[in-house]
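Please review the protein record below. Let me know how this chain folds according to its tokens.
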Amino acid sequence: MIRLFPSRPIAVFLLAMAGSVAPLPAVFGQGERGSQEALARLAARPTPKLPDGHPDFNGTWDHWGGIEFVRPQTLADGSVCIIGCPPAAGGRRPSAPPASPPAPPPAASFPKYKPEFLAKVKDLEARQVQLDTALRCQPAGVPRIGPPNKIVQNAREVVFLYDDINGSFFRIIPTDGRPRRKDLPTSYLGDAVGRFEGDTLVVETVNFNDDTWLADNGAFHTRNLRVIERFHRIGDTIDYRAEAHDPAVLAEPWAKAPQAMWITDQELEESARCEDRSMPHMVDGSHHDNPR
């Protein structure tokens, strides 16, 4: 159970580490946004195509991003429970929908590191609150940031827009076969190029800095990281998958759990400002796994 005490303020973004690891539809009731029932209905629609024959990825895409998984509950001692709360009076959590008991989200997978790097991972995990740049208002990196919230597509490129807990970010991804630029410095979100394999958009990204993690709990990477993302549109849904390759430290490529995206008519708004003002209030370095 994760709790906050009002007298010990900790920024919300410390409780919602960036980067979705799995879809959460099973946590919510039938008929709700993002439920399996709703996804099946959206997937049954015709898949739109552009004049060039490629699937049309244009649109705003929902995927339970941000901190929507947080459903606070005030406990008897005055603390605010965030995750793993005990049942409220009557056996129900006050914010739970009137449906069958929710299933827990799938356990997050974790990259498999070479033996000589396990001690480093353990040390970073122990000091995550102090060292994780995603807790310092920095971009979460790829693939930790997860799928985009909006896609703008034309015959030359796709643009990914993110409404992330740390702010608004973008990626411009050529899809017309032009070579990678040679003048770009390393960056949090890297340098991406895209291609189509049938009806699947494949995005390959390199040229990362080494300031981000692949996931929570000390999952570091080197500047040689290469990430391959796949977007497959099915009706008004997208099946999103991402795989990280970093043979210098990983024993094998690491695949994130597949994630569902679905079309929405809710347009993006400017992200709230991320301010790192919590460290003076930290009591200890405890943290939790990302439940998304």
Summary: The longest helix spans residues 118-126. Confidence is low (pLDDT under 50) at residues 1-29, 90-105.
